[in-house]
Design a protein that fits this description.
This protein is an alpha/beta fold. The chain has a domain of 137 residues: Rossmann fold, CATH 3.40.50. It has four helices and 13 strands. The strands form four sheets. Strands 5-2-6-7-1-8 form a six-stranded parallel β-sheet, sandwiched between helices. The chain is globular.
Length: 202
């Protein structure tokens, strides 16, 4: 279908784990699908939590996806194959290598088509992911999401419930040490959302 003007631009969706980033990404892509646009979704090949061929949100939404090597060459090759696709989604950008060429590639592609990217805002230490940090100020639109802090006070048994902007990594129920590997693919068994007050590093 020909269009009077080609839609383009870059939207980056960020937040901690369990804030609904992937859910929002899938919602936006589905909206374009329903409008008759061609849509493709990419994911880093190291993320195999729920499926190797789908992006699956923590609340069970899913969409078929192309798994790509999380480096410049892998992303560039995938985007070249999707040259005729009008809308591109990229999930879990933080797992891609900290290469400025990846940022430049995404920006270049988003001048010709609509691109949506979902990524963690910070790692488990509370430090920004390099590729996300470089992309955010260059995006046309940023959607910043929050989760709900699930910290439980050991004395009162009450849950915090404050807005959560951090991702807490837990090992056997205790905060992970700062020198733990930066990337650990996992879900509720390893992570929970925390506010700044209750985010801990051992």
């Amino acid at each position: 279908m020909s269009r009077e003007a080609r839609d383009f631009g870059l939207t980056v969706i960020v937040g901690p784990m369990f804030s609904g980033k992937t859910t929002e990404l899938l919602r936006l892509l589905t909206r374009y699908k329903m409008a008759g646009y061609t849509v493709a979704l990419l994911k880093p090949s190291i993320d195999k939590r729920y499926s190797e061929r789908e992006v699956v949100s923590h609340d069970g939404l899913k969409m078929e996806a192309l798994a790509v090597e999380p480096n410049y060459s892998g992303l560039e090759e995938a985007l070249r194959k999707l040259e005729d696709v009008e809308v591109i989604g990229i999930d879990e950008l933080q797992f891609f290598e900290p290469d400025m060429k990846i940022v430049e590639l995404i920006l270049r592609v988003s001048l010709e088509k609509r691109v949506f990217v979902a990524a963690l805002n910070l790692d488990f230490r509370g430090e920004p992911w390099e590729v996300v940090k470089e992309l955010l100020p260059r995006a046309d639109d940023v959607v910043s999401l929050q989760a709900v802090c699930t910290y439980v006070d050991p004395k009162t048994g009450k849950r915090c419930g404050a807005p959560a902007t951090r991702t807490q990594r837990l090992i056997d129920g205790k905060p992970a040490p700062r020198d733990a590997p930066r990337i650990l693919i996992g879900g509720r068994e390893s992570y929970e959302p925390r506010c700044r007050r209750h985010h801990e590093i051992s």
